[in-house]
Each structure stands twice: as C-alpha cells, then as structure tokens.
Design goal:
Blueprint: H1 2-22, H2 25-31, H3 35-42, H4 44-55, H5 59-67, H6 75-84, H7 92-98, H8 129-134, E1 156-159, H9 168-171, H10 191-203, E2 208-210, H11 215-222, H12 229-243, E3 249-254, H13 260-263, E4 264-267, E5 270-273, E6 275-280, H14 286-303, E7 308-314, E8 331-336, H15 343-370
Parallel strand pairs: 1-2, 1-3, 3-8, 6-7
Antiparallel strand pairs: 4-5, 6-8
Length: 371
C-alpha cells in the first residue's frame, strides 16, 4: 500500500513540475511560436487532410465537405509538400523556394539609407534582472512641459518596451562595456529620449503622454521575464487605447547596441544619434505602418541627411515580428542611437524627430479639417 501511495505521489509531483515547465513564458516563446505551425495550418492540402480526418467522426461535417467540393487528401502529395515545401497544386511554389524574394512568407530587411550587414540594428542581450531590481534610481527630474497632457487627452503615446536600455556615457566611467548598458534609472536609460521627444512634441502643441513604466519591475511583479516585454507593453498600449479613443500615434523608443561609429553622424557641425525604424511584418496590415514610416524617414533625410540608418522590416524569424504594430496603422518602433551616444546627441536627434513628427501631425490635421 505504501509503495502504491509513494508511486502515485511521485507521479503527481513529476506531472506538476512538467506542467509548470511547459507553461513558462520562455519555453512557450521558443517551442510553441513556430513558423512551421503557421505554414502547416495555411496549407490547403494539410487543411483538407484535417477536415477529412474530422469528418470520419462527424457525419454532418462529411456532408458539408462534399457540398463544398473539398478534396480528400492525396497522401503522396501531402508527403511531398511536407518534405519539400512544394505544392503540387501550385508549381510557382517551386520558384518561391528557388528565387530570392519570391517567397511571400520571407520578409527581407529594407535598408533605405545604409547598406551592409555591419550597419543593421543589434539587439542587446537580456539584462540581469536581479541586479537591475537592486538599483535605487536617483530622483527623476522631468522637463517642465512633459506630461502636462494626461493619458485620457493625449493623441500621441510614447513608451518603452525595453525601458532598461541605457547609454554608457550617462552611466559613468565605471560602465564601459555594451553588456553593462542597462539601468532602471530614467535619467540614464532610454526613457531620457522619450522625455526629450515628449517635450518637443508638447512644444509644438501636440497632446502627448509619455509612459515611464519601469518595465523591469512590472515584469517581475507578474512573474514574467525578458521574453514577455512586448506582451507587457501590449497591455500598456491596449489600456491606453481603451481609455482614450483620440490616441492615434504609438511610438515605442529603443536603443540599439551598435557602437558610436555606426550610430552617430555630424550634420552642420552638430552631432546626432542616428535613428533606425523597425517595422514588424508578422501581421496583415504591416504595409500601413510601413507607409507611415517611409514618410517620416523621407522627411528626416530631407531635413537632416544621414540622420536615419533606414527602415528594417522584421518578421518572426528576427524576433517578435509584430511589436504591437497591429494595434494601429500609426504605430512605430524607433531605435535611437546606440550604447555610446551622449545626452547632447540624443537631445539633437529628439529635436529633429519632434520637428518631423510635428509637421506630419499638423499636415494630417489640416487635411482632416479640409475634408
């Protein structure tokens, strides 16, 4: 009897830990969000096979399939498609595999202003959350004009999915390695840029709200980790949208991990931190966001030649792939500068970006008023 009880208890304990492991966000991110699953579910042959298998148990479904002329699966064809990716019903799928740019599921990066792999944005490694949570940030001094507009009245929402991304010159001489460029202190991390941009937009009469949430602490409170950053920021954006239907623009500001020679440019004797626009292509309306970004990028390059590193189109194979941009057609992610940029360079870029966004905003308002 004791052996049976011990065996049962052991089995339940193992099952408990297995379920806990399978439900960890990090595990789900790596093993359940697979492009292969999407490809299988979008395949006509695989779909027909699934429906046919279900119809053997559901007679009414079998009648429905016959009335809709859904073919029963040809198992050799099914095996061919699963093994090679070539669909016998669509021979252009062979070209999709063979010719660069033919596969509609493969989104290549768009580098509009610079060329070469060495200039593409680099994601910072996940920070040590335990160390970040030990920090005691200095008292934050915000620009006088920032957040005079509350969230319920704002039309632009500025936020940071990776609010800990910091700048080495702001951290002090004891931090010199790119891997050390993380902080929860909003006077030293990417939140500084959000504050500077918000100040510029408010000066131009644009109701703007800057969300300075400590993402590190917020993730910790929920038991989440680095891989849940966009899940958290998505909830922030959705809450903001629910509280204010006037909100039109959503700007997620990040810091790149590239070094200063790539992230800095001098224009008319003034140093600027370069920008890089990231557009998530893993949703059906991404082209609307891309069109918006292309207009901003063109305006920036006209006024400040060289300030933009370009536009980078990313799908799920390169990271999150959506970046909350499916929530609005004017939702953008901007990499501002790199680990080595200083406050002056970030300030100059914030002014330039605020100027261009301000012009776009007011022109759009004029068109709306005329209509």
């Amino acid at each position: 009897m004791r052996r049976i009880l011990f065996t049962g208890l052991s089995a339940m304990t193992i099952l408990f830990f297995l379920i806990t492991f399978l439900t960890l966000p990090k595990f789900q991110h790596h093993f359940f969000q697979l492009p292969l699953v999407d490809e299988i579910t979008e395949s006509v042959i695989f779909s027909d096979a699934l429906f046919t298998a279900m119809s053997t148990e559901i007679p009414l479904l079998e009648t429905t399939l016959e009335s809709n002329d859904i073919e029963k699966p040809d198992w050799p064809k099914l095996l061919l498609e699963s093994a090679s990716g070539v669909s016998p019903r669509n021979f252009t799928s062979l070209l999709d595999l063979a010719l660069p740019g033919r596969n509609p599921e493969v989104h290549l990066p768009i580098i509009t202003n610079e060329a070469g792999e060495e200039t593409m944005p680099i994601e910072s490694p996940p920070p040590d959350f335990e160390e970040l949570l030990k920090e005691e940030p200095e008292e934050e001094k915000q620009p006088d004009s920032e957040n005079r507009t509350n969230q319920q009245e704002a039309e632009i929402y500025v936020y940071h999915s990776h609010s800990w991304e910091a700048f080495l010159p702001l951290l002090g001489e004891d931090k010199q390695k790119p891997s050390q460029a993380s902080s929860t202190d909003n006077t030293k991390n990417i939140v500084v840029v959000g504050s500077l941009l918000t100040e510029q937009l408010e000066k131009r009469g644009i109701p703007t709200f800057h969300d300075r949430t400590n993402v590190t602490a917020a993730l910790h409170e929920r038991g989440w980790d680095y891989y849940d950053s966009y899940r958290l920021s998505r909830s922030m954006v959705e809450e903001a949208m629910a509280s204010n239907d006037r909100m039109k623009y959503f700007i997620d500001i990040h810091r790149d991990a590239q070094r200063k020679d790539i992230t800095t440019v001098t224009i008319n004797d003034n140093a600027y931190a370069k920008l890089y626009f990231v557009v998530g292509a893993e949703h059906k309306n991404y082209k609307e966001n891309l069109a918006f970004v292309e207009k901003l990028n063109a305006k920036l390059e006209t006024k400040y030649p060289g300030i933009s590193r370009g536009i980078f189109l990313k799908d799920r194979s390169d990271g999150n792939g959506v970046y909350n941009q499916d929530l609005s057609k004017k939702s953008i992610l901007i990499e501002v500068g790199g680990v080595d940029n200083n406050k002056e360079e970030l300030s100059n870029t914030s002014k330039a970006l605020g100027e261009v966004i301000g012009e776009y905003y007011h022109n759009a308002e004029e068109v709306t008023s005329e209509n």
